[in-house]
Design a protein that fits this description.
Two copies of one chain form a homodimer. Chain A is α/β, with parallel strands linked by helices. Helices cover 35% and strands 18% of the residues of chain A. Chain A has a nine-stranded mixed beta sheet, with helices on both faces. In chain A, helix 7 crosses helix 10. The longest helix of chain A has 16 residues. The interface between A and B is large, with 65 and 65 residues. Strand 3 of chain A pairs antiparallel with strand 3 of chain B, so a sheet runs across the interface.
Chain lengths: 390, 390
């Protein structure tokens, strides 16, 4: 890599059941917000990457990258536009490709977007489509749904490490507490441990409030070389590290159910290029598509030891005022989880945190931020480390 | 870009209605052939890119990039794996991302694959899924199918430039002639102009024999820095140029129905970085998903003037012995068109041509080769230029 890269503009739509708007309007809105967040004009953009997991299955639209350019009124530029798919990690992967394009000198200004429109299909369809991120032949076809696979992971974590049902609930409670202070969040409402424990069981031990919702939403980020950033913004954020990892798609093939090796691999690369360790991270967005995934994430990223995620969370270490504030945005659980948009939305939140613009959910004086975005049951993971401008 | 990149290994499955095999077996077979084509071992590979248009809709499997690594027995490497989607241009885009990753110094050895399993769904489903590459809201939803949109393009070309029905047929006749000499081709059988003109009308003026078939198949290519290539192969092929372009997704928004601006944009970049012009290209694979698209391609790439593609083809200039041999593999029409695999398969063919390994369909002493791969009705295009080792 030949040069440092900065985030200069970010844009996020409200997440939720947005029946009044469309796939293309969502991503266009997010892109326009990102453009208006800095002094970039559409003509400055040299390349576009967009993450979307299942636009084909949700809205019968593939080839979405040229569509995004077209909807934004920029088709006459004829620039390269590329869609990237990695299930729930699609957004993080699109961001990474945009980062690599700028870092390598291939392009100067790139935009990375993420979008999903999930609520225009019946709920049973959503479950089927989410199952496409597991191993179709060895898991989904045999009846194992996405919640069922995550329930296996949770059961094993409880059995092996003594994690309790209440500790899992605390993840959701804390993320809802943060989300209540995020105007873009799908659920801006605090809940209690009792809310979680009293919600319907979906796959033992996981209940409705252990899971992120199906959401509509989009997010976008504009990147450029760090040494050109000041012509576009007074608040650049440096991308200090980027890592990506993969794992066996089916749970049965893995050595352990309770470690996401893809996350560990991605984190190692990202920490190494940033030159920092887990203890240096001041604020973090992780992929809590299920409460159990947040515990795995904080363990695999090295914030606490394997198996101690539940106790660590219950002690308040991941709250806004804790040692490692996690998901100030409300996470996937409360902000919402439009699959392809999530990885980009995480980095929008961290950009606001590093710029000290996060309002009531601002973590105190963060210097280093980390985003962890995973796909399926952790078969793909992307980790990015950001640094506040000096 | 910091360094030259070489193709060191290629692998291709047979294309066709392959009911006896699966999505994962196809791409694993292609990848293994590519590995066996050079001295690379699985452990050497640093990154994987895979192109697939609609694996979600065809086989209910997203997150295919980790699956490919997993199926190949390489999951323990935990390397980054990324799926790229650009409809029929998915393969070319995946190859381009792999090329950029090696060229920028980010990784040393990358593998790019492409795969689609199209024949496990009913035929009417195929038409619906292909429609997802057009503009869903402004074209497909209103009843315009993929063949109907290409029929509009063909009608306009005939009206504006005097292209005849017979000239279109000659594209299919020639591609079948080439395909008859390709053991991997879906249709290894010559046809006549009468065969095309007598085949059922699907969208006036296009008939069944103007269109590429639905196919199953996969292809894979291994890339490394040119100055490291000789440790893996004695027959490296240099990637001299890479370009990508986009256009309005819906035909109605474009200035012209008969020019693919995305192809022109991609070709300009690729010619410029290779330092050659259209006249220097010795052998070429273009995206003939419909016969009309081959005429547009040879015009937009600069082999003949706009509007003269029909006459140029009828004169034999695009035959193996002509001025610009096109689609020696048989093209999409005869080799088959498993959407995500096509862009990679084109580059496999050109690699064999530049290595002088194409047997009865070998073009005489080619030095420069060009691949053009498009998505939808040309809203995305990727062009690569390859050079034979000196």
């Amino acid at each position: 890599m030949t040069r440092d890269v900065a985030i200069i503009g970010v844009g996020l739509t409200k997440f939720g059941e947005l029946w009044e708007t469309s796939f293309r309007n969502l991503i266009t809105d997010a892109g326009m917000k990102a453009i208006l967040d800095c002094k970039v004009t559409g003509e400055d953009i040299d390349a576009l990457y967009v993450g979307s997991m299942s636009s084909g299955q949700f809205v019968n639209q593939e080839l979405v990258a040229p569509l995004v350019l077209d909807s934004a009124g920029l088709a006459d530029s004829h620039i390269p536009t590329t869609r990237v798919e990695g299930a729930g990690a699609s957004g993080g992967m699109a961001f990474r490709q945009a980062f690599l394009a700028v870092a390598s000198g291939q392009v100067d200004v790139a935009i990375a977007g993420g979008v999903e429109k999930m609520t225009d299909v019946p709920e049973r369809e959503v479950t089927k489509i989410l199952g496409a991120a597991s191993d179709q032949e060895w898991e989904a076809f045999l009846g194992a749904t996405d919640p069922a696979l995550h329930a296996l992971i949770a059961k094993r974590h409880m059995e092996k490490h003594g994690t309790t049902r209440e500790q899992l609930a605390r993840v959701a409670v804390q993320n809802h507490k943060h989300g209540a202070q995020n105007p873009s969040a799908q659920f801006q409402k605090e809940i209690t441990v009792e809310t979680v424990l009293g919600s319907p069981l979906i796959a033992d031990p996981l209940r409705v409030f252990d899971t992120a919702p199906a959401s509509d939403g989009a997010a976008a980020i504009i990147l450029c070389p760090l040494d050109e950033a000041e012509s576009y913004t007074s608040r650049p954020v440096r991308i200090a590290g980027s890592g990506q990892g993969s794992d066996y798609l089916s749970l049965a093939a893995r050595q352990s159910l309770v470690t996401f090796e893809a996350t560990k691999h991605a984190a190692r690369s990202a920490y190494k290029s940033a030159g920092i360790e887990a203890k240096d991270v001041d604020v973090c967005e992780v992929h809590d598509s299920y409460t159990i995934n947040q515990l795995l994430a904080i363990e695999d990223l090295g914030f606490c030891k394997k198996g101690e995620g539940g106790a660590y969370t219950a002690r308040g270490e991941t709250a806004l005022t804790g040692a490692h504030p996690i998901n100030p945005s409300g996470g996937l659980k409360a902000r919402g989880h439009p699959l392809g948009a999530t990885g980009i939305a995480q980095i929008c939140e961290l950009t606001w945190q590093l710029r000290r613009e996060a309002g009531p959910r601002q973590v105190k004086n963060p210097q280093w931020a980390l985003a962890q975005n995973t796909g399926g049951t952790g078969a793909a993971a992307v980790v990015h480390i950001l640094e506040a401008a000096k």
